[in-house]
Design goal:
By secondary structure, this protein is an all-alpha fold. Helices cover about 80% and strands about 0% of the residues. It has 13 helices and no strands. Helix 1 crosses helix 9, helix 2 packs across helix 10 and helix 8 packs across helix 10. It is globular. It starts with 6 loop residues before the first helix and ends with a helix.
């Protein structure tokens, strides 16, 4: 299958938009089923949709389910576990008084992706891409950083930095798993690894909830109707992310993915009629400058 240069851009923008919707749906579930339950919704209720996507792709290719080798399995496990840990660290940071600072620091993920991609996958960076990552990341930090008078301590900051690092490991792990899968189509590879990743994540969280948090598990099962929407949006976003990882380096994908912040800002302004501050406008300028550099690279 021919890979056009614009494919990864379309996949990434689609994924970022779907993720904003999924995040909004997940947040609404948190008060109903708790943070662990809301996290599990992303994987457990996304799993059937992931299998549906993969089934459609397999049937379209007519070549059966590809064999998953040990390398793909190992990388998918690394990516799945890292994504769970990243979410847990982010939630831990948000429980602190300085959660705004910590949440902002999770957005330095593209920097970690660039470093890990270079070390683990050999994804080299040009000078233009390096500047783009720096500009976009700085823009997100400027947009997200709280104003004066907001107290913060070291622990949530460390949680935020660690969360961003784990999200980066997840991106690298899933990209490596897709690359290691020998199939004639990047769509087939992405779809199969998505199913594998969701299966690993659902199983790990299910085992944890059976061991430590059965009440949240029961609440998650009772709230199946609203959870299905979150699962569908999550699976759709993940499918688009994995397609982007299949055709482009994780560093470029995750840098362009920062436009998710821009989408979230637009949604926030529409819902709450808030006016952007000078700090936010400057952050948006840096973010868009970084994105334009990534697109022209």
């Amino acid at each position: 299958m021919t890979i056009e240069p614009w494919y990864w851009i379309a996949f990434t923008v689609t994924a970022a938009a779907a993720q904003v919707g999924r995040n909004a749906t997940q947040r609404s579930l948190t008060s109903l089923i708790g943070t662990v339950g809301a996290t599990q919704v992303r994987f457990l209720y996304g799993l059937p949709f992931g299998f549906l996507f993969a089934l459609l792709v397999v049937l379209a290719h007519g070549q059966g389910i590809p064999r998953i080798g040990g390398e793909s399995l190992r990388w998918a496990f690394v990516g799945g576990l890292a994504q769970i840990l990243a979410t847990g660290l982010m939630l831990a940071a948000m429980r602190e008084k300085s959660f705004v600072v910590a949440t902002a620091l999770t957005k330095i993920e593209p920097v970690w992706v660039a470093l890990f991609g270079l070390v683990l996958l050999g994804d080299r960076l040009s000078a233009t891409l390096t500047v783009a990552i720096a500009a976009a990341t700085a823009g997100v930090l400027v947009m997200s950083w709280p104003g004066r008078g907001v107290a913060w301590t070291a622990r949530p900051v460390l949680f935020g930095i660690a969360s961003g690092a784990m999200f980066a490991v997840a991106a690298i792990g899933f990209r490596a798993a897709i690359r290691a899968l020998d199939t004639p189509s990047f769509v087939l590879s992405a779809s199969v690894i998505l199913c594998l990743g969701l299966t690993i994540q659902s199983s790990l969280l299910l085992a944890y909830m059976l061991w430590r948090d059965r009440q949240s598990l029961l609440a998650t099962l009772r709230a199946w109707r609203p959870s299905l929407l979150a699962g569908a949006l999550g699976a759709f976003a993940s499918q688009a992310w994995f397609l982007a990882f299949a055709v482009e380096s994780a560093a470029r994908v995750r840098t362009l993915a920062l436009i998710e912040i821009f989408f979230a800002q637009l949604l926030s302004k529409r819902l709450f009629s808030q006016q952007a501050s000078g700090q936010e406008w400057f952050g948006m300028f840096l973010l868009l400058a970084g994105v334009l550099l990534v697109l022209q690279h």
